[in-house]
Each structure stands twice: as C-alpha cells, then as structure tokens.
Specification:
The protein has about 280 residues and is α+β, with helices and mostly antiparallel strands. It has helices spanning about 5, 25-30, 175-185, 195-200, 215-225, and strands at about 15-20, 80-90, 100-115, 120-135, 135-150, 170-175, 235-240, 250-255, 260-265, 275-280. Helix 2 (about 25-30) runs antiparallel to helix 3. The chain is globular.
C-alpha cells in the first residue's frame, strides 16, 4: 500500500462518550498496589486514568491475528505486522475529569509518517485525542503508534543504554503475568504480546511477554505526582526506547529539576533505559 494511500487517513476523526464509573478506578488502585481510599462519585480522575474508559470493543470476528482490531477503519491499514505504543504527550489545560461524569473523547489522525530504523521500515501514526467533561476540555493527548516489520530470523535484540542513576524518587515493579493480565483486562487490550507467550516469541520474535507501554507511562506520572502532592500537573510526556519484558522487576524513577519539573524514566531489570519522560506542574 502506498504512502499516499495511507495519508488519506490524515484528518479522519471519531468521537466517543463514556461514563466514568468507579469500579475501574478501584481495580487500578488494587493493580498498582496503592493504599488509596475507595473512589467516590465526584472524585477527580488522576492523570492518564482516562485509559480505563473509551475502550474499543471490536467484534471478535473483526480482530486481527495480533489481537488488535483490524486496521482500515479509523486507523490506517499500515501493512507492517508489529505494532507498539511509541509514546504520548499531554497538555492538561482544563478541570480534571471526575468519577460519575459523562466524558467525551474526540480523536483525529494527525499524521502518518514513514521512517527507517535499525530493524527496517517503520510507520508512525500520531492520533490527537481531545478529552472533555461537563465543564469543557480537560486535556489534549498526542498518541504515537509505531508499526514495524516482522522479526528477521536470528534478529538480536538491541541493548538499551544505561538508565540514569541519580533518581530523587523511585519504585520497583514486579512485571509478573498477573500485572500484565490485569492491565490488559482493565484497558480491554487484546494485544497478544502482553499475555500469549507462544505468540510473542514464535510470531513476533521477542524473547518474552512485553510490559505495556502505557502502563509504564502511567507509572511515571504516578510517581511524579505522588511525590509532589501539593502540585497539579500541567503537562506530561513519555516515549519508548526499548521493550521491558515480563518475569523480571523493573524500576520507575524520577528526578526533581531546578525549575520544579520532574524528569522520569523506566529502568529495565538490567538497568537499561526503556522509557523516558517529563512532568511539569502548574
């Protein structure tokens, strides 16, 4: 499929509504092993917890071999088999969403761009989401999706560079299969790389189950905001640099900057830099 054809999807849009019920919040609190009180109607939804809502429920007959919905409807039909969450950028410009509200997400394909990396051809698709509650727009997210070629026989996994060692705050996370299953279930994410060991190793060529990119992004803003409880996030961004595999312990880390912001990152089980981000506060 030509790039010109794929770029015909730029500008395509869709809008969905959902009710911000309390159970998904309670379940994510338990999954992250926090000691927060039970959520109540009217409580603000923490940053990035909107991923518990607006879930795509494609009919099983319309699901592709990787567990995702078939491409070609809202997302362009990129003919590369491997798909990953490359990163996101958030601008928190309005009041927070609240539990019990009817919330809305307006999405638009912002760009479709080809690139070439060490493993071959890639296509980056950026989707802009504008998320609103009854009081107006709460935040805008730019979500980057990367599509990659199939793994080549004998292809070696690139080793990430070492993660920084000067964190102000840190937390260790055991990436066991139960954590991966719970997050997949809470976000209705059928992508088989997170739970299907024979698929992820035999078809996509990875050495093990892969920890969700958005889970690691969420853990970064969680560490930053919980370490700055008297401050309100203004913006957050994260991008993926290398996969993190299940069955080991990784660490979420953040460092306070002189301007009051916080740089954040994920260090994999061997100390490699897997994600990096930045949180700023109002």
């Amino acid at each position: 499929m030509s790039l010109e054809t794929l770029r015909q999807w730029v500008g395509r849009s869709q809008t969905v509504e959902d009710l911000a019920t309390s159970f998904p919040v309670r379940a994510l609190i338990a999954t992250l092993d926090e000691k927060d009180p039970d959520p109540k109607i009217g409580d603000p939804l923490p940053p990035l917890w909107h991923w518990l809502y607006f879930l795509e429920a494609a009919p099983l007959s319309k699901v592709g071999g990787d567990g995702h919905a078939e491409r070609g409807d809202f997302l362009p039909p990129v003919p590369l088999p491997r798909r990953m969450w490359a990163g996101s950028r958030f601008a928190f410009i309005g009041p927070p969403l609240r539990i019990g509200e009817t919330i809305q997400r307006a999405s638009r394909i912002k760009s479709v761009e080809p690139k070439t990396g060490s493993t071959g051809a890639m296509v980056f698709v950026t989707v802009e989401h504008t998320v609103s509650g009854p009081s107006g727009v709460s935040f805008i997210e730019d979500h980057d999706i990367v599509y990659r070629e199939a793994a080549k026989p004998g292809e070696a996994q690139r080793q990430p560079k070492p993660a920084p060692a000067d964190a102000t705050w840190s937390r260790k996370i055991a990436a066991d299969p139960v954590l991966l299953f719970r997050f997949s279930a809470l976000t209705f994410n059928g992508h088989r790389i997170h739970y299907d060991q024979p698929y992820v190793t035999g078809v996509e060529g990875y050495p093990g189950l892969i920890v969700h990119g958005p889970l690691m992004g969420l853990l970064q803003i969680e560490l930053a905001r919980r370490s700055n409880r008297d401050r309100v996030p203004a913006a957050f961004e994260f991008r993926a640099l290398a996969p993190v595999y299940g069955g080991a312990t990784f660490s979420v880390q953040a460092r306070r900057q002189s301007d009051g912001s916080a740089t954040t990152w994920i260090a994999d089980g061997t100390g490699g830099l897997a994600q990096q981000g930045k949180a700023t506060f109002k």
